[in-house]
Amino acid sequence: MTPTTHHTATDPTLHDVVVVGGGAAGLSAAVTLARSLRDVVVVDAGEPRNAPAAGAHNLLGREGVSPLALLEAGRAEARAYGAQVRDGRVASVARTDDGFTLTLTDGGVLTARRLVLATGLVDELPDVPGVRELWGTHVLHCPYCHGYEVRGRWIGVLGTSPNALHQTLLLRQLSDDVTLFLHESPEPDDEGWEQLAALGVRVVTGRVREVARDGECLRAVVLEDGHVFPVNAVAVQPRFVARTELYEQLGGEVTEHPFGSFITRDPAGATTVPGVWAAGNAGDLTAMVGAAAAQGVMAGAAINADLVQEDVRSAVAARRRSLTSTGAAS
């Protein structure tokens, strides 16, 4: 049986919360809010960042689950508790006296007292042919998300930043055959060279021309000078750019980081913009699926508590007005 949802606002079209983004973070926030009988709507374009991956990992109890299957299950759980899940995109948001008005790209309009931005991030990949085509399958960035699946194989690291050395050392834990292609990354310092030598990591200088493939299969890393290095997997460091357009429309300022940009949030997800919470990769560039889901739960709980306090203040004020008017009438 679907629980009865409490509508605390005077305007029946005013939702308690609109969640923008229906990934692990957004759906977890929606479930948490709906279980507190909040009127919550999730707006989602159905394009999860991890869709190309075969499985989501480090997720207790659901290890290796298909990302798309996980989201379908999450949608079903949210709906079972009374949340609405709406397919679409939010084009713009504006503050109102009651909270926020969101305009969707299909022309629809939603109003809400609170807002959760679980909009995720965009991976800005290096402009090397083959990288984008194999992204999420043979080209990866996170040793914890997909490293186990390429353990013991020939792994190449495409250097794009000073973080290439750290990424190489993490992957060396998983394979004895790791090659660092410096490409655009700076050369290691003396300590870095010593570490790579001690671990038997090959280092290749020169720019990479392409990540060669046969259809959907990775074949090799090819340098601009034509040298070919067979590999089974390639790791890269994208620039992580959170989707912050809606946050900026509300006056929020984006925080820059050497790895990208994101929305600053407190441990419960509250941002510097009143009434707006962020969860998942929008506010944490390194959050894996489990961490993103946990952040959604924390944000949902914090928002419910915030709304409870607002509703209590309104109820107290209404009671006082009633007592005052009753006393005046007598």
Automatic annotation (TrEMBL):
The keyword Flavoprotein applies. Residues 15-293 form the FAD/NAD(P)-binding domain. SUPFAM superfamilies: FAD/NAD(P)-binding domain (SSF51905). It catalyses: [thioredoxin]-dithiol + NADP(+) = [thioredoxin]-disulfide + NADPH + H(+). GO terms for molecular function: thioredoxin-disulfide reductase (NADPH) activity. Keywords: Flavoprotein, Oxidoreductase. Pfam families: Pyr_redox_2. InterPro entries: FAD/NAD-bd_sf, FAD/NAD-binding_dom, Ferredoxin-NADP_redctase_2. The keyword Flavoprotein applies. Gene3D superfamilies: FAD/NAD(P)-binding domain (3.50.50.60). PANTHER family: THIOREDOXIN REDUCTASE 1-RELATED-RELATED (PTHR48105). This is Thioredoxin reductase. It comes from Flavimobilis marinus.
